[in-house]
Amino acid sequence: MTVGFSVEDELYRELILDHYRNPRHHGTLPEATVTRQAVNPLCGDELTITLQLHHGQVKDIAFAGKGCSISQASASMMCDSVCGLSTGYAQEMVGRFRAMVLSDGSPDDLGDVEALQGVKRYPARIKCAVLPWNALSDAITDASRGNQRGST
Ligand code: ZN
After folding, report:
1. Residue range 102-111: average pLDDT?
2. Per-residue model confidence as pLDDT tens digits over 23-69
3. Less Cβ around it within 10 Å: N or C end of the chain?
4. What's the CA gap between 40 and 46, in Å, rounded?
């Protein structure tokens, strides 16, 4: 089956491949205050998100693991977009991302992350795209409860 790509799709695809090949914030933070692992068994994606939270702010964030291009690019873009934000605003970004890929609405001010909106046409890949965002959301929730480690 061939998929017709518009010019916009091509740009988005380039951006996704760029994040996959040159991931931002890749690795683990030595001074992480919270760590969260996430697995998507349907695809084989495995991610570990480490966060350094300080006074309600995401001071630094990194991800490690392996998986498909969508999960890795999504993690890379996520780290880029939430680094430096307050935890409350980071959670809001998670909500906007979920809304973008899980509903028919148009993306709401997500920057480069909007490149991933095309996954909603491929339901099997939505879990790949959402995986790091769910891990981030759970990590922030864990941290706010004083539980420093967790896994799904
Ligand atoms: Zn995947």
Report:
1. 84
2. 999 999 999 999 999 999 999 999 999 999 999 999 999 999 999 99
3. N
4. 7
17 alpha carbon – ligand 1 mean position (Å): 14
> Distance from the CA of 125 to the center of ligand 1, in angstroms?
6
H or E segment and range at residue 50: strand 45-54
Query: Residue 94's beta-bridge partner residues?
Result: none
Q: How far apart are CA 9 and CA 144, in angstroms?
A: 38
Global pTM? 0.90
Question: What spacing in Å lies between the alpha carbon of 122 and ligand 1's midpoint?
Answer: 11
Q: Report the separation in Å between the CA atom of 55 and the middle of ligand 1, taken as the mean of its atom positions.
A: 33
Distance 10 CA to ligand 1 centre (A): 20
Is the CA virtual torsion 99, 102, 104, 110 positive or negative?
A: positive
53 C-alpha vs ligand 1 centroid, how far in Å?
A: 27
Compute, in angstroms, the gap from residue 131 CA to the centroid of ligand 1.
9
